């Protein structure tokens, strides 16, 4: 996510929604300022 988009949309919410839609992000990958947890 760009900083501009991240001001409008929560990075953690993007990761959550992607996982619920069957498109989980790889553990340790970065989404905006959020690094997806390893656990």
Describe this structure in words.
With 39 residues, this protein is an alpha+beta fold. It has a domain at 1-25. It is built from two helices and two strands; from the N terminus they run ααββ. The chain has helices spanning 3-8, 11-20, and strands at residues 30-31, 34-35. It has a two-stranded antiparallel ribbon. The protein is globular and about 25 Å long. The mean pLDDT is 89. This is LLA-1380.
Would you spell out the secondary-structure blueprint of this structure?
Blueprint: H1 3-8, H2 11-20, E1 30-31, E2 34-35
Antiparallel strand pairs: 1-2
Protein name: LLA-1380
**Rg measurement, Å:** 10 Å
- Distance between the terminal alpha carbons, to the nearest Å? 22 Å
Q: Pairing-aware structural class of the strands and helices?
A: alpha+beta
Describe the largest sheet: 2 strands, antiparallel
**Percent of residues in helices:** 40-55%
**Count of helical stretches:** 2
Summarize the structure.
It comes from Lilium longiflorum. The protein has 2 helices and 2 strands; from the N terminus they run H-H-E-E.
Task: Supply the key terms.
two-stranded antiparallel ribbon, 39 residues, 10% strand, alpha+beta, 2 strands
